[in-house]
Amino acid sequence: MERSGADRRSTIGSWIGNLPAPLALLNRFSITRYLLASIVSLAFDVALFMILVALLFDPGWASAAGYSAGIVVHWFISLNFVFPGKRREGAALQVQRFGFIATALLGLGITVSMVSGLTSAGVLPVLAKAAAVGVSFFAVYFARKYGVFR
C-alpha cells in the first residue's frame, strides 16, 4: 500500500515528536536532516569500500561501488526523511531520480576538481578534501532542495 506524502510526514512527525526537545528542534531544518542523511550514506560508502578492499578488490572499483551504494542510501533517506512528501510519480519520478544522480555527479566533480586544484597549489590533501566536502555538501544540498525535491 502506497502512502501519500502527507501520511509520511505525519508518521515521521509523530516519531520526531517523541524525541527530546533539542533533537526535535533540529529536525525542523531540512539542512540538519540532510546532514544526517549525508553522514549515514557516507558510512555505507566507507564501509562497503573497506570491505571490498579487504577482499582484495581494486581500490578504484571499490571506491566506485561504495560511492554508488552511498547514492542509493542517500536517495531513500532524502525521499523519506529529508524531503518527505516531495516524491514524484510515473515519468516525473524518473526525472527526479535522474536529477538526484546528476547532483551526485555535481558533488563528485566539485570534490575532484577542488582536491586536484588545491593540492597542486600546495595545500595538504586532507585540508583540500575537507574544503571540497564543505563546498560540495552545500552545492548539492541547495541543488536538491530547490531543483530535485522542489
Task: Give the secondary structure arrangement, pairings included.
Layout lengths: L4 H13 L3 H7 L2 H25 L4 H24 L8 H30 L4 H24 L2
Characteristics:
mainly alpha, globular, 6 helices, 150 residues
Describe what this molecule looks like in 3D.
The protein is an all-alpha fold. Helices cover 82% and strands 0% of the residues. The protein has six helices and no strands. The longest helix is centred in the last third of the chain and has 30 residues. 20% of the residues are buried. The model has no long low-confidence stretch (mean pLDDT 80).
Major pleated sheet: none
The overall average pLDDT, rounded, is: 80
Number of strands: 0
Element string (H = helix, E = strand): HHHHHH
**Individual helix count:** 6
Beta-strand share of residues: under 5%
* Low-pLDDT ranges: none
Q: In a nutshell, what does this entry contain?
A:
This protein is mainly alpha-helical and 150 residues long.
